[in-house]
Design brief:
By secondary structure, the chain is mainly alpha-helical. The chain has four helices and no strands.
Length: 78
């Protein structure tokens, strides 16, 4: 899980132009990190491109914290 967290943390920090230290597992993507819906869409497009996956809209609605994203990615079929 740690490796996936590091990847998501790096993507979010770069995209949102914030310090990587702010991107904790418990951080709420919108409230704590200041992401808006466009930022979240860009994150998902990047993850889809990087991992060759499609993230369904119903899953997207569940992504509130960084941990939600990491858990989803870790649970993908290998």
């Amino acid at each position: 899980m740690n490796n996936m967290y590091e990847e998501v943390k790096t993507i979010l920090a770069r995209q949102l132009r914030i310090s990587p230290e702010r991107v904790t597992l418990d951080a709420q993507i919108k409230k704590d990190l200041g992401a808006d819906s466009v930022d979240i869409l860009q994150l998902l497009m990047r993850l889809e491109d990087d991992y060759g996956i499609v993230i369904p809209d119903q899953e997207l609605a569940k992504f509130e914290t960084v941990n939600d994203v990491v858990t989803f990615l870790n649970n993908l079929p290998k």
